[in-house]
Design goal:
The structure is a homodimer.
Chain A lengths: L19 H7 L5 E3 L9 H14 L4 E3 L7 E6 L4 H6 L2 H6 L5 E8 L2 E8 L2 H16 L8 E4 L5 E5 L19 E2 L2 E2 L4 H12 L4 E3 L7 H4 L6 H12 L4 E6 L3 H4 L11 H17 L5 E4 L16 H13 L4 E5 L19 H6 L10 E6 L22 E7 L15 H9 L11 H5 L9 E6 L15 H12 L5 H13 L3 H22 L36 E2 L17 H8 L9 H4 L2 E2 L10 H24 L7 H33 L11
Parallel strand pairs in A: 1-2, 1-3, 3-5, 7-10, 7-16, 10-11, 11-12, 12-13, 13-14, 14-15, 15-16
Antiparallel strand pairs in A: 4-5, 4-6, 8-9, 17-18
Helix pairs in contact in A: 2-5, 10-11, 15-16, 16-17, 17-20, 20-21
Chain lengths: ~675, ~675
């Protein structure tokens, strides 16, 4: 554990606690760990606790399987030892779910005991990480009493890694998993990655890109040894592995000339392949499928529907406790830009809503947060919560494809909080997205979160050092969507930079403001997409305007935006439950930040803030650049308080962000000025 | 020769002449070929004549070294046999230059003799190809008397091929030269390619991309065996090989850490390398250099100027009769789009004009036809003709980077004719570009043409079958720039599709119209650049508008175009000699087709044709699509007259062209309509 790694330790730095008083007070407590090693399936649980205490406190604890006559930590599953159960009351035991844990300080006679307990090995592991995080953050041990349960069943990470080492939409180097169509020879970093994920409660991982290419298609059969090794690494940290599959695998295998889900030979082919996977990996999670989307194969090619396509696989997986995750990112990517009636935003709802109840129990639909594609700001997908008889999980994007590509600081937790706290009104007021995806709204069998991860083999894992916070925050939110953005952020800052009031104040503000700052100079009023096709970076106001991708702002000399109302537009608003439909349908109630997503308006339209639409664009873009400068100044104030390497790295990114923000600002303002001839009322320089 | 090739024979099909009368009349004449095989350096000359006669006439001629007592063809260099010289008068002998030839029917006693003669082996080879072409085109033998001399010394082809088999800006498959960093194992196609080039008079070839990457840098040393093999193949057809070099080769070799042309070690390094090249390839042509351009290394990195950079290499090459070709495609490719004072169009003249007379005798500047980069229409580069003490060659682009990428039919001979017939006024009226580059204007030592070729390993060599005509026509024009576009085109049609009046009429019109048709729906009034960066395909009106490449139209709500006048603009017009400067400077005299290249105008500006500027854009774009439809209809009329394979291939390209033309039309018209709000007066559909 003390060898120097060739990569950052992120939020598991366990920086030494230098306050001797604390160490001395609890020295005895941290010296003995009572556990039954044999009963621990996840060996990491004990070693992580031991190493963590060593690094935090400089104490090398002993493991013992009997209660010593001294202070001690007791690390045991419920029901394992009688004397543990004595320390927990009935209510505490009952309140834990399968993966929950309890951490509790008990005074027994004159002896302090810290109980870390759970109903499962995973729970125990999460408890240990939580306890170490508590110590790292200088949490008090007085009256220590934490009971936590993860709110959702699936807390997934999706990797868009390819076997050649490339990562689709990766901005932090190459894959930490693969190189040259093989697993990395040295898997130590993968193990440390599993630990990072487990420490924030991630319990599922998809090992390969949803766009499954030739080599990756073989991860289910010819290359199963790679999958098996990965399963072995992640299993140690309580993480089940899943694979993205190519729906046309039976064809690519060379064995069949169809992938029709109703063809008996196809079914037999999958039965054989799946049986073999589970023979090799008994706890294999299942499949993630991007079917009939963006040129990927799927059941529609054979005249079958999405339910038929998914259920064929799900039925086979049932026998193995496997899950079939079906992505709802399906739309017409060959749209004619001249066609103003087709609306990509409507696609997922139109396609999937009719199949509510048609999917087998072990099928879960993975739905992107918005109806388009991870833009800086989108309304929530109307499909979320709208299928009471179908399991749904929410797909978020940690990798910053459209949010600055880890060049720009863009902390996404505030965005995600808005999304999961959004009230769908599916079952009346209070039907938030988080309730829809944690299963509590419709009591669906499966539930949870998935997110496309932002890691690569850069030293700092995430390209921009501060983008680590997005990965940390995702895990914490998936565990407990009720955590506030501020809570999560403070945790991450403390774990990553050490507890320090000044650092916390500066970074909290930088992070919490950053999404809105990024939005301000890139994508005004819900427009999105002003980027270059392919790279998805910008600015490129007309980048997608004459493309087949269904993403248009339709700006002309006098007006801009897409009318998506039921009254006069594409009717997208009609996919929402009434309260939301009414809100978006009418300009006065439609929030400014979505006004051009739902309405087509003249540049002279008066926004709720009193400025005209175009003046707002000018203002926010100029101000956005200034705000980036402010962020840089703030960061500069920490010089000397942060180690030079991290300080200079982040400063360099902020410099680049400022330069690019100016480019966004000037291009977008110039575009609209040239198009409209309407001058900035403040007379700032537009080209 | 009769084996079936895996590729088209282009204009060397030698389709059998079926008219028995002709065959019978001249049977005796074609039966005997008098030549001295030993004295023929280029063996291909004799075999080509023999095979050609066999295929055209079904006659297998005999070679003999003595004059038979019957009709005969006499194929001999001047001075080789006394009786040949008797057939040529003094004037004929004197009129031939080194690479010229004479073809002449002589009645000697009762015997017909066809004399094919020249001062050199190359001349003889060109004479044979010309004679076979004459027969293929059903030319009469009565009074046959052709004397031809190539007007320029260098008639070059530039290949932008890379050793991995890719071709920069190639639209006809992969390289016919290289694959996987090796020469193709089977070089038969390269031999046939050499034959195609020689048949139109090409005498020089650059074997690799001007953007010289890592592997290609080694063609001068570690990979010299590839260069040597290629030289051997092309030598047989009178073609000298050249290499594009990496100016930083001494550094890449690992031997030096500088490429400073004034550094003695650098000079020694090049001396050693060049000596070795000429040891292996005594007739090696020399180097082509793209220096200090688009991120390529060059002398400027070391504080040296272009003359110092070129002369260092040229001096070493002098001893070997080698040539140093220095490209003038140099400009600031990191321009800030906000900067309206810097003008890329001015760069080449500004940079090179001051060095007139500073280059050694064996240096030649290779100058692109226009000041920008092979756009559909550009004014002629003001550098052409403007350096009386410096050798210049004209660089054209056969590969259709900006002219439809061999998807669109765009026959370039009419464009090139306009360019070479353009009067620079460098030495008063009549100082045409062709005189500047054939050396007659300023009596410069070197002269000629270079062009980036359009061939790849597609069956038809050029992607679009009809694009073969551009390669053919380039060779013919470089040989004789006075040929009319119609003459060249009729030759090509006849050689490629057989002599047929209907085919000739249809294809002549299709080809001759195609450039203006392509221009009409893509790039109005000299604008250019409405394409996507990277792919260089379109339409993408703002594609380069906010880029660093120096290529802007600066369209706003009321005006468009770049003011390049001396009076109020960038001053580019001032680089022209007075007559041209005056013509471009003033709107009334500036031709419509260049009006937006030289002037910034309101959309309501009245063009010389009476319509407003914007209405002209609308009109030409709509009409352009209709013209493509007309071309398709014309082509359709040939169904049944052309073999099905070629007919359907060309039809498929025309279908694609129509589809893309509609896209160009709709996007460009919609862009301007949305930007200006000015409606089409004819009320056609704009989106």
């Amino acid at each position: 554990m003390n060898t120097v790694k060739s990569y950052d330790l992120c939020w598991l730095k366990y920086q030494p606690i230098k306050d001797k008083k604390i160490i001395d007070k609890y020295r005895a407590l941290f010296t003995n760990i009572v556990l039954n090693e044999k009963s621990l399936d996840l060996k990491a649980t004990a070693t992580e606790l031991k190493d963590g205490l060593d690094r935090l406190l400089g104490i090398k604890p002993y493991f013992t399987d009997t209660l010593p006559d001294s202070d001690a930590i007791i690390l045991c599953k419920i029901g394992q030892f009688a004397y543990i159960d004595d320390f927990l009351d009935h209510h505490e035991r009952e309140s834990l779910n399968t993966e929950g844990f309890i951490i509790k300080l008990v005074l027994a006679g004159e002896r302090n005991r810290i109980i870390i307990s759970a109903k499962s090995d995973k729970g125990l592991l999460y408890g240990v990480f939580r306890f170490l995080s508590h110590l790292s953050l200088r949490g008090s041990l007085e009256n220590l009493h934490i009971i936590e349960n993860p709110r959702s069943e699936l807390r997934m990470i999706n990797h868009w890694d390819n076997l050649d080492g490339s990562i689709e939409r990766g901005y932090a180097g190459k894959s930490i998993f693969y190189r040259n169509n093989e697993l990395m020879r040295d898997t130590e970093r993968i193990t440390d990655y599993a630990k990072l994920l487990a420490s924030v409660g991630i319990n599922s991982i998809v090992l390969n890109n949803v766009n499954v290419h030739t080599n990756e298609t073989e991860l289910i059969d010819k290359k199963i040894s790679i999958t098996k090794k990965m399963a072995g690494i992640f299993r140690e940290y309580g993480i089940r592995v899943f694979l993205s599959i190519n729906y046309a695998s039976p064809i690519q295998s060379g064995e069949l000339n169809t992938a029709d889900p109703c063809d008996l030979n196809v079914i037999r082919w999958w039965e054989k392949v799946i049986a073999h996977i589970y023979k090799e990996i008994p706890d294999f999670g299942g499949f993630l499928v991007k079917a009939d989307s963006e040129h990927r194969p799927g059941p529609l090619s054979y005249g079958r529907d999405h339910a038929q396509g998914a259920n064929m696989l799900a039925k086979i997986l049932t026998a193995y406790n496997g899950i079939l995750i079906w992505r709802c990112f399906v739309y017409n990517c060959r749209q004619d830009w001249r066609d103003a009636t087709t609306d990509r935003a409507k696609a997922a709802y139109d396609i999937y809503k009719p199949f509510d109840g048609a999917f087998l129990d072990n099928v879960v639909l993975q739905i992107k947060n918005g109806p388009m594609d991870f833009q800086v700001r989108e309304p929530v997908s109307p499909l979320l919560g709208a299928m009471p008889h179908t399991s749904q999980i929410l797909e978020l994007q940690i990798t910053q494809e459209y949010t600055g590509q880890q060049i720009h600081l863009c902390y996404l937790i505030p965005q995600w909080k808005e999304i999961i706290d959004f009230d769908t009104y599916a079952k009346g007021k209070g039907s938030t997205v988080k309730k829809a995806v944690d299963g509590s709204l419709h009591r669906t069998k499966l539930n949870g979160f998935a997110a496309v991860v932002n890691v690569g083999d850069d030293f700092n894992w995430t390209g921009h050092y501060l983008a680590q916070a997005n990965l940390y925050g995702y895990g914490r939110l998936a565990w407990n969507p009720d955590l506030s953005a501020e809570e999560i952020t403070k945790e991450w800052i403390g774990l990553t930079f050490g507890k320090d009031v000044e650092i916390e104040n500066v970074l909290l503000k930088m992070l919490m403001d950053s999404w809105l700052v990024y939005e301000s100079y890139t994508s005004p009023l819900g427009l999105g997409w002003m980027i270059t096709p392919g790279s998805h970076y910008g600015p490129n106001v007309d980048g997608y305007e004459y493309s087949p991708w269904g993403t248009y702002h339709r700006a002309d000399h006098t007006m801009i935006g897409v009318d998506r109302t039921t009254l006069s537009g594409t009717g997208f608003t009609g996919q929402y439950f009434k309260d939301n439909k009414d809100m978006y349908e009418c300009k006065p109630s439609c929030p400014d930040e979505f006004i051009l997503f739902f309405h087509r308006l003249p540049y002279t339209y008066s926004l709720k803030n009193g400025t005209t639409l175009l003046q707002h664009i000018y203002d926010t873009h100029f101000e956005g650049v200034n705000k980036v400068k402010d962020i840089k100044t703030k960061w500069g104030s920490l010089r000397g308080k942060i180690d030079e390497q991290r300080f200079e790295h982040i400063l360099a990114r902020l410099n680049l962000q400022e330069e690019h923000a100016k480019e966004w600002c000037d291009v977008i303002n110039s575009y609209f000025y040239r198009k409209t001839g309407i001058a900035d009322i403040h007379g700032r320089k537009i080209y």
